[in-house]
Amino acid sequence: MEAQRLLHGFCSNSAIPPIRNPKKPFFMIFNPSLDHSKRWASFKTHHYDAPQTVSWSKRRLECRNSVENAGGFTGGEKGLESGIRRKNLAVFVSGGGSNFRSIHEACLRGSVHGDIVVLATNKSGCGGAEYARGKGIPVILFPKAKDEPEALSPNDLVAALRGFEVDFILLAGYLKLIPVELIRAYPKSILNIHPSLLPAFGGKGYYGMKVHKAVIASGARYSGPTVHFVDEHYDTGRILAQRVVPVLADDTADELAARVLHQEHRVYVEVTSALCDERIVWREDGVPIIQSKENPNDYS
Fold first, then answer.
1. Which of 37, 41, 53, 299 has its CA 20 to 30 A from that of 132?
2. What CATH number is associated with residue 203?
3. Catalytic-residue membership of 194
4. Which residue in the list 113, 194, 212, 265 is annotated as catalytic?
5. What keywords are assigned to this protein (predicted)?
């Protein structure tokens, strides 16, 4: 009988200068088993000083201790290095996942230097989860709920993403609050897209059509998507990118939503590309900016 391989150490996610992600030593035993009829990735974890069991649908993962050399930002001298490795992405969805699909397609055609290696959802039957299964992308459930007995706890979720060697997490219409355990495990590595120009029309309860109805009712002349880093609250993390669309005098919520969504698909792919290319730079005042791919001396 083939012996199980006992592997030591978390796989670190890629750090964004000048931050390195913390590592907690523990042991992981990988044992591939899966209910292929559902294409679930099943995880069972314990405390960090106890054996960890992770099952995956695609292949046996070999975790290794690694420290990314973040270094300091040197402006134009750094540029876009040809040796940058492809990044592993996790996407979180609660609905149809149109942004998830646009990012996945960009990865496949080479516009994004990364791969979506796992999808997390709180709704096993949502459109995003069905799309992932159809593309062979493992699906995991979070958070735990009465109607989702296979869902993970926050600590199990962190261990699962570490097992998939995830570098960055992209929220794409995910409606649950991200647990502090995940934020601490992936500092400055979790992004969200919101369908308004934050900080306006953001926070708990502002999602989907509720946002667009509120924008129209306010009399605002402009709206558009915002990509921001995720903190422990709804829609309050540092803003990374925005796109502006007009709010027309006779707009309906559906019409405005379609106009904003078109820009969402574009800006989220652009930001994900910059993230995987390691072109996100943090100013001394804590504001993240994006280094141009064409001209490393330009930022947005």
1. 53
2. 3.40.50.170
3. yes
4. 194
5. Chloroplast, Plastid, Purine biosynthesis, Transferase, Transit peptide
